Amino acid sequence: MKKPFVTLEQLQTITQQYPTPFHLYDEKGIRDTARALYKAFSWNPGYREFFAVKATPNPQILKILKEEGCGTDCSSLTELMMSDRCGFAGDEIMFSSNDTPAEEFALAAKLGATINLDDISHIDFLKDTIGYIPKKISCRYNPGGTFTLGESEEGFQVMDNPGQAKYGMTRPQMTQAFRRLKELGAEEFGIHAFLASNTLSNEYYPALAAILFQMAVELKNETGCHITFINLSGGVGVPYLPDQPANDIAVIGEGVRRAYEDILVPAGMGDVSLCTELGRFMLAPNGHLITRVLHEKQTYKDYIGVDACAANLMRPAMYGAYHHITVMGKEDQPCDHQYDVTGALCENNDKFAVDRMLPKIHIGDLLVIHDTGAHGHAMGYQYNGRLRSAEVLLQTDGSTRLIRRAETPEDYFATAIWD
Ligand SMILES: *Cc1c(COP(=O)(O)O)cnc(C)c1O
């Protein structure tokens, strides 16, 4: 079962200081996750996690991750600016963007970030933009087709569609790109691929690693390029459903090590550093959306109206994503009531849960919506004039700290032209 990282008593104290709704993050959980990840890859001396900023673009979260040895993975101008302002140095920033505007390449190059090119045409676009090709450069690969793992009677453990994804270069383009980059002065080469999202399987990274390691050996033989890093990107998932087993990052790290020993080491490429760009795995379980019940409405269904809405957490409305809900203080009561849990947007998809079995809910109850630490606040918007909520950090000593204030009507009005 899913257990919140706070108790009802703690939340009653916290909500006296910070009105609901707000996102709450667990500093200890974030640090523990980062440490387990680094331990799993400690066999690779150059290993680094570049946290995918888009998952949780909060400077205080980034600073915690920086203390744990992480860099950042950026895909936009403002993410680059935020990384710079948080004190990440050039080699601690990965720039994995697509459809990239010139000014973003220019800033990435100025900061000394490692640029990961999404397309072969971006080589000359980059050179024309900044006037040179950086000595260290990476290319994103897309094998096309479908990517599947672990077929069983219930279907595939992992299934995704790289052939329908807009990202990355084809296999022949990878060879051409490396040759062209080498001609233009690149000296250290990297390879990146992101083949499946939110995978719940200890096999995803090892399978991806084997594909990339094999290609690295081929590219080295074909082009003579010195491949110094391989980027496994994101995609290691988290169990949103209460009965799903979590990934075991130690097993994943060991699986990648075996592929490394089998493929890279015999090819004389035992000096390759690995990188990851995890977002969801690092943060999702370490965040809760805290919301209070405002209304109960009984018509054709039984609705629980809360003070958060899809503007605070878009995933259920956008993808029908499941987020577990704990009714605080009622953890031991039977889930014998069926509810739709809704926000206030004038959009019928503004529901955190549909036909969810929960304990009997009363007005004023506090709800924890689980696994909102990644792509939660980050995907917030202001539709219907609903404003983005605060973000609060539950620190390792049990105290709390406001790490982003809630938006105010003045923020909402600030970009309007009034006369
Ligand atoms: C979104 C993204 C990630 C992070 O993905 P998760 O599923 O959160 O791990 C990493 N790299 C790139 C390029 C991305 O776009």
Automatic annotation (TrEMBL):
Superkingdom: Bacteria
Chain ranges of the Orn/DAP/Arg decarboxylase 2 C-terminal domain: 285-373
GO molecular function annotation: diaminopimelate decarboxylase activity
Cofactor(s) the protein needs: pyridoxal 5'-phosphate
SUPFAM superfamilies the UniProt entry points to: Alanine racemase C-terminal domain-like, PLP-binding barrel
Catalytic residues in the record: C346 (proton donor)
Residues the record lists as N6-(pyridoxal phosphate)lysine modifications: K54
Pfam families: Orn_Arg_deC_N, Orn_DAP_Arg_deC
Coiled coil: none
Domain Orn/DAP/Arg decarboxylase 2 N-terminal: 33-283
One BP annotation, GO: lysine biosynthetic process via diaminopimelate
Keywords: Decarboxylase, Lyase, Pyridoxal phosphate
Record family assignment: Belongs to the Orn/Lys/Arg decarboxylase class-II family.
Protein name: Diaminopimelate decarboxylase
Organism: Flintibacter faecis
Lineage: Bacteria, Bacillati, Bacillota, Clostridia, Eubacteriales
